[in-house]
Predict the 3D structure of the following.
Amino acid sequence: MPPDWSVPRPLRVVRIRRETRDVVTLELTTASPFAFSPGQFNMLYAFGLGEVAISISGDPAAKDRVVHTVRAVGAVSGAITRLRRGMAVGVRGPYGSWWPIAEDEGSDIVIIAGGLGLAPLRPAILKTLATSTAISAHVPVDFELRGCPIDKGQLLEIIKAFLIGRKPAIPGHSVCHECKLRGTVCVVVAHGTPCLGPVTQTGCGAICPAHGRGCYGCFGPAESPNTAAIAREFSCLGMTERDIARVFRSFNAAAEAFRKESEAHGE
């Protein structure tokens, strides 16, 4: 008999990622399979306080995990953001309508979001990654300006280069180089935090490591990235094969170096 998700079920927090001062992403574990569609939400219950509707921001294919990104804006959401690993939160759902991702298979899909608005879209992004392709696969591209967001200095460099008819001078070394230039302590060595900095092209100013977080690979692979070595390091840090594959399937999933490494650790 399938579980009754219409009543709050206590789920344990197994992983916490602090996104900003007042925003956290909680990964909850469940013994019973949890199915949802991109765009739906759950009601999260803070015991003794009440419940609040929060969009689901995890992978629809991961039936043993429930992921929520929560901002502290009130008593209930504030209590949820203060949960620690091993503590429980009540979950009931899923509720709400969903995006018809399956019906749109084979069609062009453009996903636009900003800030915390990206959290509800993560399931849709993860769902479409298997069949998503870079824009260069559909239209001619003269030069790719990387980054999420792009770097203002690099944008000006490309405009100037095109105006005078020369090749843009965009550096191809890794984010680690920028960390050293600004004196940022390596988050992998100092804290054991997984970081894509060694294989990611420079350009962001090493913003994430400067705030104690690992690089997410926004600028795509650097020149000759040793992705196999960084994947082995991630494994030593305790990441599962599924998590390693997902790390390489974010902003630059179609980049050859990242695509091949993700395929080596996932389906």
User: Anything to note?
Assistant: Residues 9-102 form a domain with the Elongation Factor Tu (Ef-tu); domain 3 fold (CATH 2.40.30.10). The CA atoms of residues 201 and 222 lie 4 Å apart.
